[in-house]
């Protein structure tokens, strides 16, 4: 439904941002009994589009999410959750491709150790700007450290006089 709505409403041009928008709308569609346009707008707030503009994307959101319908994911929800839990990272990892490395810490302490050992590394959270360095400016990123698996980097805590938001939230 969401992907078709993006097509029907012309919600994608270059396609770079489309997966993020589709997944945000999919989550909205699955987690609400029928979202109103304000909820759809809020669900898309963390996504950036540099070419389409937001009107067609918001139209797609309204078309796909404002009326909840059963789909193929409903029947397999429990199995999907089980599979996702099974592949959740359990330890710090490293991915290599030729001379490029992506380090995947799970804790702040691991991040500090990895960054200390690789001070030239680029930190990767959402990747909006960093990805443009690769695609638009053709820069090499030989070492990246992805911070999205670190629980403390994705937290939101409300204090008495403060609000603490993790850097990868």
Please, could you describe this protein's structure?
- This protein is an alpha/beta fold and 169 residues long.
- It folds into two domains: 2-74, [2Fe-2S]-binding domain (DNA polymerase, domain 1, Orthogonal Bundle); 93-165, 2-Layer Sandwich (Uridine Diphospho-n-acetylenolpyruvylglucosamine Reductase, domain 2).
- Helices cover 43% and strands 14% of the residues.
- It has eight helices and six strands, in the order ααααααββαβαβββ.
- It has helices spanning 2-8, 18-31, 37-43, 54-65, 72-75, 77-87, 108-117, 128-135, and strands at 93-97, 100-104, 122-124, 143-146, 156-158, 163-165.
- The strands form two sheets. Strands 1-2-4-3 form a four-stranded mixed β-sheet, with helices on one face.
- The model has no long low-confidence stretch (mean pLDDT 88).
- Residues 2-61 form the [2Fe-2S]-binding domain.
- Residues 102-169 form the Molybdopterin dehydrogenase FAD-binding domain.
- Keywords: FAD, Flavoprotein.
List the helices and strands and how they pair.
Layout: H1 2-8, H2 18-31, H3 37-43, H4 54-65, H5 72-75, H6 77-87, E1 93-97, E2 100-104, H7 108-117, E3 122-124, H8 128-135, E4 143-146, E5 156-158, E6 163-165
Parallel strand pairs: 2-4, 3-4
Antiparallel strand pairs: 1-2, 5-6
Helix pairs in contact: 1-4, 2-4
Write a brief structural summary.
The protein has eight helices and six strands. The chain is α/β, with parallel strands linked by helices and 169 residues long. It folds into two domains: 2-74, Orthogonal Bundle (DNA polymerase, domain 1), CATH 1.10.150.120; 93-165, Uridine Diphospho-n-acetylenolpyruvylglucosamine Reductase, domain 2 (2-Layer Sandwich), CATH 3.30.43.
């Amino acid at each position: 439904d969401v992907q078709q709505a993006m097509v029907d409403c012309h919600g994608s041009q270059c396609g770079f941002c489309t997966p993020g928008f589709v997944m945000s709308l999919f989550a909205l569609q699955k987690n609400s009994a029928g979202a109103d346009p304000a909820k759809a707008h809020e669900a898309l707030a963390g996504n950036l589009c540099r070419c389409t503009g937001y009107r067609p994307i918001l139209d797609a959101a309204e078309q796909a999410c404002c009326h909840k319908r059963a789909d193929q994911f409903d029947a397999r929800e429990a199995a999907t959750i089980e599979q996702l839990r099974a592949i959740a990272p359990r330890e710090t990892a490293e991915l290599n491709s030729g001379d490029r490395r992506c380090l995947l810490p799970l804790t702040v302490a691991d991040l500090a150790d990895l960054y200390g050992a690789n001070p030239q590394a680029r930190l990767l959270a959402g990747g909006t700007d960093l990805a443009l360095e690769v695609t638009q400016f053709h820069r090499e990123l030989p070492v990246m450290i992805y911070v999205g698996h670190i629980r403390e980097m994705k937290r939101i805590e409300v204090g008495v006089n403060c609000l603490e938001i993790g850097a990868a939230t």
